[in-house]
Structures are given as C-alpha cells and as structure tokens.
UniProtKB/TrEMBL annotation:
<dbReference type="InterPro" id="IPR017896">
    <property type="entry name" value="4Fe4S_Fe-S-bd"/>
</dbReference>
<dbReference type="GO" id="GO:0051536">
    <property type="term" value="F:iron-sulfur cluster binding"/>
</dbReference>
<dbReference type="InterPro" id="IPR017900">
    <property type="entry name" value="4Fe4S_Fe_S_CS"/>
</dbReference>
<keyword id="KW-0408">Iron</keyword>
<dbReference type="GO" id="GO:0046872">
    <property type="term" value="F:metal ion binding"/>
</dbReference>
<protein>
    <submittedName>
        <fullName>Sulfite reductase subunit A</fullName>
    </submittedName>
</protein>
<keyword id="KW-0411">Iron-sulfur</keyword>
<feature type="domain" description="4Fe-4S ferredoxin-type">
    <location>
        <begin position="337"/>
        <end position="365"/>
    </location>
</feature>
<dbReference type="Pfam" id="PF17179">
    <property type="entry name" value="Fer4_22"/>
</dbReference>
<keyword id="KW-0479">Metal-binding</keyword>
<feature type="domain" description="4Fe-4S ferredoxin-type">
    <location>
        <begin position="256"/>
        <end position="288"/>
    </location>
</feature>
Length: 376
C-alpha cells in the first residue's frame, strides 16, 4: 500500500495544478502501467470506471440526494462537483462475486485457484468518506490472524488520489463521524478543486510526492489556501448531524426499543443499504457446477444481513423479520463494530439514506432511540 504510512512523505507546502496538470497526473499514472479509475456519468448516476483523460470526468454535473432520492443535474463547470454515487470503491477491492477455486472432474480431478489480482490501479476522486471506508476495510481484511490475500493483492497495488469535498449532499454526515470533508490520511495525493479549473494538490506518500514533482505546478499562495479551506468548511456546514456520543452503549442497551417496530413497518428488506455501504463486508459461498458436469467452482459473493438465509440455521432464521434485521445492521454499524475492529463501521457517506427506497434515515433512527426528534 503506497499510502499505508510505510513510505509517507514529509509534509510540504501544497502546489497548484491546472487542467493540464490534472491531465498530466492521469497520464503519469497510466504511464506507470496503472488502470486509472475515476468518476464517470452513466445511466443517470456517477459510477467508477476506467478513464483516459480529463474529458471522461463528469464536468458540470452535480448530484441531488435525499431520503430515497438521487438525481443529477447540470450546474457550473466543476470536474468534481458531484459528491458520490451508489458505487463505493469496495466494488473493485472486494468484488461482488469472485471465484475462490475451481475443479475439473475426471480420472484425476484437478483443483486450481485463480492467480492473485495484481493489476496496478489508481483511484482518482476518492472522497474523504470513502477514503475512511477503505481504511476500515483494511482493518477487516488485513488486520488480525485471518488476512484476505485477494483483497491484500489489490490493495498493495493501489495508488489513491483523494479529492476533498467543497460541497455536500443533503444526506452527508461525515463530519459527525469524525471524517470531515477533508482527507486526513491514507492517500498518495489529495486535491481540492478551486475555481477556474485549478486544484490545490498535496502529497501523502513518497510515491505521490514523486508524481507531483514531475507535473507542471506552481506554488500555492495564501489565497489558494484560504479558498480551499472555505470550500471544505462550506461542505461541513451543509451536512446533517448524528450524535455519536455514547451511541454504541445506547444501541446495545435498547434491543427492545419501540422504534425498532416503527422502522420495521417501513423497511422492505431489500438490502440496498448494505449493497451501497462502502464498509459492509459480509459474504456467502456458492458451489457452482458446469452444465455438462465436468467441473465445479466455489464462488464468494456479497451477502446481506437483511436476507432470510443470512441467519438461517437448522430450524429457521435467527432473525426472521425486518425488526431484528434492521436492528442487527444498525447496531453492528454503530456499536458492535467497535468491539470487533475498534472503530465505528460508518463513515457518514449517507448512501444508505439516498438509496433506501422508502428513505429510512439512520441519523434520524439513532436520534429517535436517543429520545430526540431527529433531523432530516
């Protein structure tokens, strides 16, 4: 991991990149043999796909998000005016489905495992909430006695270009989670978009420092710094709030709170919240055979605690209804995750609010259990 802290660069004064410099950054990463992946507008949403230059970015588009609603509209000329779409970077680092091993039948059955994915990649446009989500998944997949080698290989070959937020969606609450719209650590390069196709740029690793040194830049002055700071503070001021003070203990001590019944009356058990969440990591295994019976494979795919089969054991599901499933998801995310990984499992991206078909709002649910009116 180039920005894991092992090769962190010394702090240097930020520089300014223009459009040509950003184009040069993309070209420099590609010249290193990296697949550069960035935000792209497709099918009415922002998704993460390979890009070859600045023209592939969603210039002049912003997103409007609220409970159960998401749409794009034209506004201004910013390249990174959007916050984020339904996809987290998890889709690439921890794919929705992958083959663990396959077997060919016959007189001498042969079992093979696919080689590690050692593709060199660069993520461009990683928001601070998603940067924090990658750090959380690092804890899940790389720390402790059971390291995931597939995730580890992808992570080891990754270069991260973060982009600070100067605008928040109505569903964002990363400031409440201690993430803020400003990237703190874990990046190779961080950009803040200013006016006039200019970017404040800083390095967070030796690799990032080397890339920036080779690009056409100019020193940042106090006006650039003040503009970036004002944009970040504006984004922070636009956010909703989630009070996390004592929240883990509050949720764990209220398994029978009447609010769980109220939310269950609305929850569709569709699992959208877990699919768009950048930190959810649960999986299940499928045994898949070929149609002609000459082979089989074991596949890992994403799973969700909102499905019946997720907690199914002999005799039935441990969590048979929406009340128990939503309580499990929210309590894990905001309470028992701390017991497992010493951090909350939420970074305040707000995707679960936007992509819930009925607009269930995790910040309001927490406030109601606390005994407050909640905010929308």
């Amino acid at each position: 991991m180039s920005a894991s802290g092992q090769d962190r660069a010394k702090s240097t004064r930020p520089v300014v990149l223009d459009r040509a410099g950003l184009e040069g950054l993309i070209a420099a990463l590609a010249a290193e043999g990296r697949e550069v992946i960035g935000p792209v507008r497709r099918d009415g949403a922002i998704v993460h796909e390979p890009i070859s230059g600045v023209d592939d970015l969603p210039r002049g588009w912003v997103d409007e998000q609220s409970g159960g609603q998401y749409r794009l509209r034209r506004e201004g000329e910013a390249l990174f005016g959007i916050t984020h779409g339904p996809q987290g970077w998890k889709r690439i680092l921890h794919p929705p489905k992958e083959t663990l091993w396959s077997v060919e039948t016959g007189a001498a059955p042969k079992i093979t495992a696919p080689p590690p994915d050692d593709t060199r990649r660069a993520f461009l446009g990683v928001r601070p909430c998603d940067l924090a989500a990658i750090a959380i998944q690092d804890k899940v997949f790389l720390d402790g006695p059971f390291r995931d080698p597939r995730y580890g290989s992808r992570r080891e070959n990754l270069f991260l270009v973060a982009v600070n937020c100067t605008r928040s969606a109505a569903t964002c609450f990363c400031t409440s989670m201690g993430t803020r719209p400003e990237a703190g650590a874990g990046y190779d390069i961080v950009l803040t978009e200013l006016e006039g196709e200019t970017f404040l740029a800083s390095s967070g690793s030796v690799a990032g420092q080397d890339i920036l040194a080779a690009l056409p830049t100019r020193p940042a002055d106090d006006m650039h710094l003040a503009s970036a700071e004002a944009g970040i503070e504006r984004a922070a001021d636009q956010q909703r709030h989630l009070d996390i003070d004592g929240l883990p203990d509050l949720l764990k001590s209220n398994p029978d709170h009447p609010r769980w019944d109220e939310v269950a009356s609305r929850c569709l058990n569709c699992a959208n919240c877990t699919m768009v969440c950048p930190t959810c990591f649960c999986t299940t295994l499928d045994e898949v055979s070929t149609l002609d019976g000459t082979g089989a494979a074991r596949e890992q795919r994403w799973a969700s605690c909102f499905t019946t089969e997720f907690s199914h054991v002999h005799g039935g599901a441990v969590r048979p209804g929406a009340r128990a499933r939503y309580r499990q998801w929210m309590t894990h995310k905001l309470a028992t995750w701390v017991d497992q990984f010493d951090t909350l499992g939420c970074t305040g991206c707000g995707r679960c609010i936007s992509w819930c078909p009925v607009g269930i709002d995790i910040t309001q649910e927490a406030a109601m259990i606390r005994g407050e009116g909640g905010e929308r």
